[in-house]
Amino acid sequence: MSVVLQNSSGWVLDARSLIDRGYERCVRCTGHLKSRVKCSFKRQCFQISKSHYNVSGAATVDGKHTAVMQKTDKRSKKRKRKHSENQGEIDAKAFHEKVRGVILEGTKSLVDSAQSAGYLMGEAEAVKDSPPSQDCRLAALCEMAKELPLVADEEQEWTRSLFTEEGRVSQVDLFSQVTENREAWAALVSLMGEEYIIPPNTAFLLSDFTRLQPLVQSGRRFDLIVIDPPWENKSVKRSRRYSSLPSSLLKRLPVALLASPGCLVVTWVTNRPSHLRFVRDELYPHWAVEVVAEWFWVKVTTSGEFVFPLESPHKKPYEVLVLGRYRPTDGLTSPLKTESVPVEDKRLIVSVPSALHSQKPSLSEVLKLYVGAEAECLELFARSLQPGWTSWGNEVLKFQHVTYFSLEAEAREDGADDPAVALDCSLPEKSDGLEVSSLPANSAES
Questions:
Q1: What is the number of alpha carbons within 13 Å of residue 285 lying toward its C-beta?
Q2: Domain ranges, residue 240
Q3: Are the C-beta atoms of residues 162 and 370 closer than 8 Å to each other?
Q4: pTM for the complete prediction?
Q5: Separation between Cα atoms, residue 139 and residue 136, nearest integer Å
Q6: Which helix (H) or strand (E) holds 189?
Q7: Does some domain include residue 40?
Q8: What single DSSP character describes residue 348?
Q9: What angle is formed at CA 12 by the lines to CA 7 and CA 13, rounded to 5 degrees?
Q10: What's the gap between Cα 85 and its chain centre?
Q11: pLDDT at res. 215
């Protein structure tokens, strides 16, 4: 039930179910032992049961009382100084007024339909456990890996299988090779001294922005590229959750070397109008990408209410996606057949968001209509992996860490018919690739 329903306004997604689909078959490899495990993303990550504000009608999607808002925080009672709007705030208000009706009416249509089908009815039993957290050192490791010399092209093997032919975990270099799990099952393996769950038929590169060469040199061309840039904003600077990237540097992404003709390019954009203008007017033209649609991800609670009031002056319950088609000017190759399927404008993707910062819902099921079921798909600035996709980022394994999953040993009488169980999953004595022990022990964490 990953796609709960679809209508003319868009889609309702069950984001957690979309994740779990990749782990229906999972094998844990520890030393010389192997075992099948039931694996699912922790339920409490998607238990957003209340709006972030205590609102009298403000978080509902029926269009009533959307201007009434009261914070539960006592700080709201303090007298605030008069504030004169800057141009960015004026532009943000204008954009919101432009899309407000689409968000309100489309969300109501989708939520009403979902509730008629028994979804978004609230949780019968609350999950008491807090969402998991894990100190992610991946970005710091990538920063240190930049000090290692690059190997000459003719000497470098740009892709490497996660497993050897004998079923052992390969001596992969996660920082300078594209690592592939070519098996049809998920694997729980030890990498750099930590346990990660790698989905089936997936590939990934863990590297800094300046070390994209292995992905380019691997020779793959993609029919779908989803980009989730670490946009600069004050909230990120204050929280220091991750390093942001100046908009101008995004132009250096080698999209022309990664995209097939007609490739669908989808970029997540914050609600800052300056970021949206940059993508539409500078970034996409620089990449020879033609804008074809603008969609919205609407975040709702498990009861179907907006997670933030629609009229909140600070945070909105929606984010923007800009969709475009790569149009190379050489004219030497044919576009995708799926280009005959038009990408509708102003569509909504409604889902309960993750409580984990910056974890976006998978777009695979929604976008396959426009790129084909067999499309080669790539995610840039990824923090997780998807079955059948290639992913890149300096935190690409962040949400693959075992702490985000619930594991249960799977009892079985005979696993002979399961190719995963038949493999020798023995691990080498040392961890793969760049050893954590070879890096400074007091490295800064991201």
A1: 5
A2: 3-47+127-425
A3: no
A4: 0.86
A5: 8
A6: strand 186-191
A7: yes
A8: E
A9: 140
A10: 33
A11: 95
Mean pLDDT, each 10-residue run in order, the chain (446 residues): 91 95 86 81 90 58 49 48 75 92 97 96 69 85 83 76 83 91 92 93 94 92 96 59 77 95 95 93 96 97 95 91 92 61 95 92 94 94 96 96 91 50 43 37 36
Pairing state of beta strands 222-227 and 289-299? unpaired
The closest alpha carbon to 28, from 174, 190, 260, belongs to 190
Least Cα distance to 145 among 189, 180, 192, 179 occurs for 192
Spatial CA neighbour of 358 closest among 199, 233, 176: 233
Which pairing describes strands 318-326 and 259-269: parallel, antiparallel, or unpaired? antiparallel
Alpha-carbon span 227 to 236, nearest angstrom:
18
Return the bridge partners of 173, or none.
none
Residue in 133, 123, 120, 107 with CA at minimum distance from that of residue 45: 133
What letter represents residue 141's amino acid?
L
Task: Tell whether 61 is covered by a domain.
Answer: no
Q: Residue 213, exposed/middle/buried by CB under 10 A (0-12, 13-18, 19+)? A: middle
Residue whose C-alpha is closest to residue 106's, from 320, 352, 350, 276 = 350
Within 10 A of 104 (CB to CB), how many other CB atoms are there? 17
Closest by alpha carbon to 86, among 273, 276, 316, 317? 273
Q: Is residue 370 part of a domain?
A: yes
User: What does the pLDDT read at residue 429?
Assistant: 39
Q: Is the dihedral of CA 322, 180, 397, 438 positive or negative?
A: negative
* Token digits of residue 124: 């019968």
CB 386 within 8 A of CB 202: yes
SS3 178: strand
CA atoms within 13 A on the CB side of 128: 0
- Give me the phi and psi of 339, to 5 degrees please: -65, -15
Render 21-41 in DSSP notation, one character per residue: GGGSSEEEEETTEEEEEEEEE
Q: Do residues 415 and 28 make contact, with C-beta atoms less than 8 angstroms apart?
A: no
Q: What pLDDT sits at residue 122?
A: 87
| CATH number for position 145 | 3.40.50.150
Does a structural domain hold residue 82? no
Beta bridge partners of 178: 159
| DSSP secondary structure of 355-423 | SSTT-PPP-HHHHHHHH-TT--EEEES-SS--TTEEEEETTTTGGGBGGGEEEEE---S--TT-HHHHS
Extract the tokens encoding 293: 């649609």
**What is the β-pairing status of strands 10-13 and 348-351?**
parallel
Residue 437 φ/ψ region, left for φ over 0, alpha for ψ in the -120 to 50 degree band, beta for the rest: alpha
Q: Which phi and psi (to 5°) does residue 324 adopt?
A: -145, 165
- Structural domains of the chain, count: 1
- Token pair, residue 246, equals 């100046």
